[in-house]
Request: fold
Amino acid sequence: MDIFEKLNTNLGPLGKHSEISEGYFTFPKLEGEIAPRMKFKGKEVLTWSLNNYLGLANHPEVRKADEEAARRWGAAYPMGARIMSGSTDLHEKLEDELAEFVDKEKAYLLNYGYQGIMSVIDSLIDRKDVIVYDGECHACIIDALRMHMGKRFVFPHNDMESLDKQLKRAERLTKESGGGILVITEGVFGMTGDMGNLKEIVQYKEKYQFRLLVDDAHGFGTMGKLGKGSGEEQGVQEQVDLYFSTFAKSMASIGAFIAGDAKVIHYLKYNMRSQIFAKALPLIMVEGGLKRLEILKSRPELRENLWKIVHALQDGLKEKGFSIGTTNSPVTPVVLNGTVGEAATLSKDLRENYNIFCSVVIYPVVPKGMIILRLIPTAVHTLEDVKETITAFEAIKGKLISGFYKNTELATSFGE
Reply:
């Protein structure tokens, strides 16, 4: 069979709906300044789908820093990979400030979050080593594990009894192979909003020998008294061996970093293929990152306002009888029951008739029969935004329960 023929006959679980979903449910185009209210299909909508936690995307100081950096350096500087010709004092300055902020000896900049953590894992692990990971880890971690030629064991989400069993299996194998064990989890899980059980995981270091890698993309800047992340929130930042975060959330930018012991970061600098063979992060992003980090550290009122909105939204939803799962972070999943077709119709109703734009998560991301409306509160949302959203959600929940969405033309076109 021609490999392209295979692609044409099987577009995948999301692609199979592309004819009716693209441009609206998939690849929608939000227009205008990044803000709680933007334009969708020419109409203003209240959006809860942007990971702009601290509202830095359009912060005037950030915009000014980005503009000045663009004028000073252009989009190209520096040319070349860091290891060859693309390193600068400003790259190292941002790395040093990030390391100090998250209480680690050293940090290293990565061009992208997804690509970056894949390269970190790939560089650390060989076929003798065993990876033990939480079953709800992000796709970037799962894709890294697919490249791993050794053993990997999964434990159900935050199931510490299962973690103990998998560590015991891993220990037996590594005693034979001479390898080591890497445990991987997330600080805040982006779909459910609950934190990884870091405090409990590190206690297993008394029983087993392993290193812990934490992806804290949603926790950096939002969790902990100072915004240092989930390790600070749970009081175990010192026992997190490798701390990773992207700039795509609280920093409202592009890039990422990995932080840990100086010797480990030195090794990664010389062995991460995604960085060795890729152009360095442009100085526009680096200077912008320095300004964003400065504001993140010096303006606690942004985080305080974020949590004011989080508490108002989550408490309000629970008071109205909505299930938001076990979230203990800003990520707010509203869990409903219904088909893929009902989810599509419900989403369209929210956008067209209630002017609410949020992410709708369906099968295969969640089990069949489940719908998750994922809301991302930010520091620039208002209490009025919260009130308007809860009112709209009450209306669509009643319609869903009554079967209003079940037999519409749009619902039946999606099937199951």
